[in-house]
Amino acid sequence: MTPDIYNDKRFGINHNSISNNALNIISRLQKSGFQAYIVGGGIRDMIKGLKPKDFDIVTNCEPEEIRKIFRNSRIIGRRFKLVHIAFADEIIEATTFRAGGTKTTESIEINEKGRIVRDNNWGTQEEDVLRRDLTINSIYYDPFSNEIIDYTKGIKDLKDKKIKFIGNSGERILEDPVRILRALRFAAKLNFTIDQEIVKGIKEHGNQLLEMPPARLYEEVIKLFMTGHAEQSFIQLKAHGVFDILFPNFLDKDQKFNEFYIGAFKETDKRFKLNKKLNVGFIFAVLLWPKIYEDSSISTQLNFKRFYRSIAEAVRKQQMITSIPKKYSSFIKDVWMNQVRFNRIGKKSVNFTKSLRFRAAYDFLLLRNINEEDLDPLINWWTEFKTANYDKKIRLLNTRKKKNARKQNS
Questions:
Q1: pLDDT tens digits, 379-404
Q2: Straight-line distance from the first to the last Cα atom of the chain, in angstroms, rounded to the nearest whole number
């Protein structure tokens, strides 16, 4: 394979935007006689004029040798061995060039469905590029020689705003179905279009995602919805039928919750851009809410038994697809169950506004208003009540009590 080689000046690469830790690692590897490059998102984002989130490094130095060179490192992973090199302010990931392989190769294991279950067969840069998934993530950069090396026309695809797999899309998805989510995530993040071969592969093999470990799918969901492009991620997942695969417990055939999701994810992206804290539990509370809404009839005449049963069932079933850490599953349940407390206005409402989960529950109530327009009076009352001092809270409660009494007597 003959790569296209460019000087970094062509793309206006700013060396000041490169992590000093990454530069030091590459320098030490090269001085030790190894090749070493920035690869993937780091160089992709610099070419696009974006600020890189992290800098992954690839080298022909094997994991055990990297470990010897960098004492502040550890080898992780069994399926794909890689090295984390830890610094005070960041962790740099270093991987070794991988070769292709067959089912008979000792270091690479492929199951009967074509899925790679282990891949630690080291190779050359030319072989490594073919082990990568997307063309736009297979660009190599040497910040000391200033060379950008492109074997797969990834730079052209960046220019054309295209998401393409390297090689046959169906085969690449079968090797690792999580690549579906990666393709959709980068399309959402970069506002790129997805190659039709990938679209076809998703349609044919999308259900293979359900055979992936729930922990891996959970991590991908976090990347989809908590890194600043939640709205576009939702749009991509829905457009390609993947949202219903990941969250099948409520199939919204009439699309009546689309506006609810869009509103929630717009707010999520806004908070991300403002560097405000995002909570995993809140995201899952949003994602799974339609099931609770429909099962409990919360907007009409709440059935408490069905309400609590549907809460437990929704979380339990989702755990089988995308594992959710216990601390977040309890948060999800609290946000949902606290929705009932907004209708039970009384003396306990004062303490409710002081509780740890009140703010999240209140924010969720605001989102519910997208689908439940009759919540306006309730929201207006709680908006005033939550910011009032103690004396005003008591006056508001007494006024509310008198109004309820008049209604009952009329």
A1: 999 999 999 999 999 999 999 888 87
A2: 85
